[in-house]
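Hi C.,

You asked whether I'd gotten around to modeling the 196-residue construct. I have! Everything is below, sequence then structure, no commentary in between.
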Amino acid sequence: MVVSPSTQVNEGHDVHIHCLATDGNPNPHLMSLIRDTDEVLAEEEGSELQYDIRGINRSQSGVYRCRATTRFYDGSEDFSEEKQNITVQFSPKIISQETEFEASIGETVPMSCKVDGFPISSVSWFAQNGSLILGDEENMDITNEATDGEIMVTSTLTVTVADESYYGTYTCKATNNIEPDGELSFGIVIRLGSGS
């Protein structure tokens, strides 16, 4: 049996699956396309099936099985299957609960940028002047952790507000070569009533 090769495709693109049984005696009488969830997506009489997924989304990633069912002369049936793995790539999306922080001089502020994207995203932090934060600067630390099957990344920039120059906007930017990039800004402001 011949199926289209395993495929990596960007979210929103169309995917064509071609199942073809090239041998068998007798020839298959039914071709089926089945998801890894055992959902039958299509069936065609004969030894060939073509199926299009329009505007594929990330929830449609998975294994698709082409099944050729053969009915023998005695009425019994048997089948053979070939698998195709479809991986849907998608641009980074940043999820964050809180983006505005109040702090007094001397306080530490952790800002977390949770990123969903495949392939896994690279996360960078930028200061309000646009300069890249490496995480080894004085009073700044960056930690990164992969979760949820290695497609989610949580990057945390921890800033100790040593003086007033640390107040302002910090930007988290996520890239994985699938456009558009994800970007989210966080703000550290003077805590009201702190006496600063």
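If it helps when you're writing up: The mean pLDDT is 90.

Thanks,
B.
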